[in-house]
Amino acid sequence: xxxxxxxxxxxxxxxxxxxxxxxxxxxxxxxxxxxxxxxxxxxxxxxxxxxxxxxxxxxxxxxxxxxxxxxxxxxxxxxxxxxxxxxxxxxxxxxxxxxxxxxxxxxxxxxxxxxxxxxxxxxxxxxxxxxxxxxxxxxxxxxxxxxxxxxxxxxxxxxxxxxxxxxxxxxxxxxxxxxxxxxxxxxxxxxxxxxx
Length: 196
What we know:
By secondary structure, the protein is an alpha+beta fold. The protein folds into 2 domains: 2-158, no CATH class; 160-196. Helix content is 30%, strand content 46%. The chain is built from 4 helices and 7 strands. The chain has a 7-stranded antiparallel β-barrel with strand order 1-2-7-4-5-6-3. It starts with a helix and ends with a helix. Mean pLDDT is 73; it is low at 2-32. Residues 1-25 form the signal peptide. This is Outer membrane protein. Keywords: Signal. Residues 168-196 are annotated as: Disordered.
């Protein structure tokens, strides 16, 4: 009970910081070395702003810009954490890895790390989607929030035509994967018949 009271107190004490015009702290922090960054060249860069409000189940929303092959693409972020309490506002910047086609950027991402922020802080995170696209980012966070379980996000392009094209490509990829699996299964069955 005391832990919850302390957490709530930290949340309400830091509320004025969230709504003030103060800039984010630790702008001169050293970026965290991300696993993907050690072995691969980035495909692009991202700048994002997250807002989170939580009581039990957390909800996160925000927006961002992907810079890919010399062009900028706006996107929206929605998602949440399984167990979270408090609120925060985060500015994040980072790199995108394994992005071979623009349309593969949109989709569902899973996070592999939790977060703990009290007042102002810096952090890092990695998000990965089903197309193996990785977003490795550093954050500056303001607010009072504790997230005790990995979160997930859905990223959608702001441009509706671009988002529609991304959905169509995803659907076509799923059909192609299913057809490939079916063909491989049939070939294996034929080989098994021949070998008997």
